[in-house]
């Protein structure tokens, strides 16, 4: 059986699901719309006189679509693979898989390639679209082949990383956060070295060649250069990185295969054993008692109670000699006063602080050497190069914790118990929102601290500092509520996580792609706005389907229509230095969208949770 029964089942069932065909169809349509939009921009703002103009269009189009596909594929493969394993853990079904006759290799590789099946289907569907680009000129077919080789290898490495971390860590948020931070660090470290020491040697190779071999972004950018096919280093752009990515994927999967039964079941399902004795799980003790026919003894009960006391929910930050005092809102108390998401959240904070140090060093390197008044700014301000990706990662992490705070309760069958208590919807929602902000307080405050550094250095006025901090606060509330909204609306954890993170990632990535088309092809913003309306309207439709299709409301419809257009307008106004307009539009549109998701969650709680539909079916 090919790669074991897990992959065989997915291979048989995937063609029966409409979402597989829908996903690759939408992906191809988006690529075609971007291609047509770019052509309309060129035809509407420039005169095509000769073959050279067509070749330039093909080269620039390839430089936009290839990195965009790489970003989508890496993010999608990592999140899909991680959430597929995390869902098995949350539902306690991974233990059942470990009790079958499947080998470790069949389990690990089966879950990995079952998750990557849809990603590789999208790549195969997009290949004919990319094969059209060489017909414009400026790009060779070998460049397209090298770009897909880099993208496929990066997808396999990212998926292996997400799957391995999911098998290792117990909490879903830990898995998603560690995967995100590892992917960002993978690219950021080599880009920083390439920026600071591109001409220096490191172990007989220049830094640039090391970056091209080890960084997916550097490799894909090397394949998109117009002179790529004539360079002697062609192998190192495509084949060199692909060899490294395949080696990394092999090492990660071998580690997961060897350790999967050591990591699982987790420590919190095992009893604390005396020295010299092997620890047993609670299930193992119950099975031995059932086989022997003996009644449970007092010692067995004490051991089981000791095992339950090791659970993260039982660990509080107050002295064990004192009685725990629960707040009026027990949801908020649990999120703040217990390790609800595991102690390994500290590792995530350390990794985030590392990225913060890199972003701060990048700002100092770009801004510290030249005074603000004498520096010549390009169309994209220098401060946005390290600051914008760092803020996006912060938004993704806050959103990941928000959505998993709901899905973990649902998969652990604790949500139904909470709903039959005397907790009010307001206590539940605001408790979750407040708990997310408490756990991710570093992700919220550190980007604002960098904005304060820009003000102190003179690159930001006091008024613009207030605008930036307030706009960031509104965006953090939006992504927090978006995660809670998706977790409540979607019963399937993988779907909820995918929709929530996908909205945050693709909303900003899609708008930035439009901006790159405008910048690289040149021309006036006013004349280029019309070709983007179809793309923006398509994004609005997709946003409405993901956010309001299950529980439609007029407010969600209006918010879905305005949000992509408002984001596009904000980025355009930022490049034109209309900061007051950026602040007002951001606060109004994202604040309205947050309210559109918050009000039904508080006042129409049963409808927001989908309980009314389930009761009707029963």
Total helical segments? 25
- How much is the radius of gyration in Å? 26 Å
Order of helical and strand elements? HHHHHHHEEHHHHHHHHHHHHHHHHHH
Which segments are poorly predicted (pLDDT under 50) over 5 or more consecutive residues? 228-233, 271-276, 315-321, 612-618
Helix content, binned percent: over 70%
> What is the first-to-last residue Cα distance?
39 Å
Quaternary structure type: single chain
Structural class: mainly alpha
Q: What topology, given as strand order, has the largest sheet? A: 1-2
Mean pLDDT across all residues, rounded? Answer: 79
| Major pleated sheet | 2 strands, antiparallel
Strand content: under 5%
Number of strands: 2
- Backbone shape: globular
Describe this structure in words.
With 618 residues, this protein is mainly alpha-helical. The chain is 76% helix and 1% strand. The protein has 25 helices and two strands. A hairpin with a 2-residue loop joins strand 1 and strand 2. It is globular and about 75 Å long. The two termini are 39 Å apart.
């Amino acid at each position: 059986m090919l790669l074991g029964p897990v992959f065989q089942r997915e291979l048989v069932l995937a063609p029966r699901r409409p979402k597989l065909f829908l996903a690759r169809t939408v992906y191809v349509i988006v690529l075609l719309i971007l291609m047509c939009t770019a052509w309309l921009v060129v035809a509407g703002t420039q005169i095509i006189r000769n073959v050279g103009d067509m070749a330039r269009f093909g080269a620039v189009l390839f430089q936009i679509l290839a990195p965009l596909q790489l970003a989508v594929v890496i993010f999608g493969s990592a999140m899909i693979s991680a959430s597929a394993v995390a869902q098995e853990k949350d539902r306690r079904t991974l233990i059942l898989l470990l009790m079958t006759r499947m080998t470790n290799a069949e389990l690990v590789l089966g879950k990995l390639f079952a998750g990557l099946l849809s990603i590789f289907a999208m790549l195969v569907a997009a290949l004919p679209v990319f094969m059209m680009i060489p017909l414009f000129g400026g790009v060779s077919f070998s460049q397209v082949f090298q770009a897909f080789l880099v993208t496929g290898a990066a997808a396999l490495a990212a998926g292996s990383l997400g799957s391995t971390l999911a098998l290792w860590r117990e909490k879903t948020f830990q898995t998603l956060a560690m995967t995100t931070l590892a992917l960002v660090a993978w690219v950021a470290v080599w880009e920083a070295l390439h920026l600071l020491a591109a001409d220096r040697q490191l172990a007989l190779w220049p830094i640039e060649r090391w970056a091209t071999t080890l960084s997916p972004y550097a490799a894909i950018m090397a394949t998109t250069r117009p002179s790529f096919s004539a360079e002697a280093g062609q192998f190192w752009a495509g084949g060199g990185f692909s060899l490294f990515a395949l080696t990394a994927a092999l090492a990660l999967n071998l580690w997961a295969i060897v350790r999967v039964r050591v990591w699982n079941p987790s420590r919190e399902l095992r009893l604390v054993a005396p020295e010299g004795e092997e620890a047993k799980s609670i299930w193992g003790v119950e099975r031995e008692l059932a086989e022997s026919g003996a009644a449970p003894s007092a010692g067995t009960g004490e051991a089981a109670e000791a095992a339950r006391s090791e659970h993260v929910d039982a660990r509080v930050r107050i002295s064990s000699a004192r009685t725990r005092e629960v707040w009026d809102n027990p949801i908020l108390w649990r999120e703040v006063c217990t390790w609800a998401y595991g102690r390994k959240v500290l590792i995530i904070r350390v990794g985030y602080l590392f990225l913060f140090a890199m972003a701060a060093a990048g700002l100092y390197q770009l801004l510290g050497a030249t005074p603000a008044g004498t520096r010549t700014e390009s169309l994209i301000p220098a401060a946005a190069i390290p600051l914008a990706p760092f803020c996006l990662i912060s938004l993704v992490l806050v959103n990941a914790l928000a959505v998993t705070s709901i899905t973990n309760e649902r998969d652990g069958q604790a949500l139904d118990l909470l709903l039959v208590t005397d907790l009010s919807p307001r206590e539940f929602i605001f408790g979750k929102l407040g708990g997310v902000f408490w756990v991710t307080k570093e992700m919220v405050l550190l980007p604002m601290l960098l904005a304060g550094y820009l003000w102190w250095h003179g690159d930001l006025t006091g008024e613009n500092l207030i605008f930036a901090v307030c706009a960031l606060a509104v965006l953090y509330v939006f992504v927090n509520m978006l995660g809670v909204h998706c977790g409540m609306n979607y019963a399937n954890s993988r779907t909820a996580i995918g929709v929530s993170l996908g909205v945050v990632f693709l909303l900003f990535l899609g708008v930035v792609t439009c901006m790159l088309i405008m910048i690289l092809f040149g021309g006036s913003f006013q004349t280029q706005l019309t070709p983007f309306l179809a793309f923006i309207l398509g994004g609005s439709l997709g946003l409405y389907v993901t956010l309001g299709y299950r529980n439609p409301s007029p407010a969600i419809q209006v918010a879905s229509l305005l949000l992509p257009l408002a984001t596009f307008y904000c980025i355009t106004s930022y490049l034109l230095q209309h900061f007051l307009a950026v602040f007002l539009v951001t606060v109004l549109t994202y604040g309205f969208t947050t309210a559109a998701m918050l009000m039904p969650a508080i006042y129409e709680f049963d409808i927001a949770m989908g309980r009314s539909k389930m009761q009707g079916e029963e």
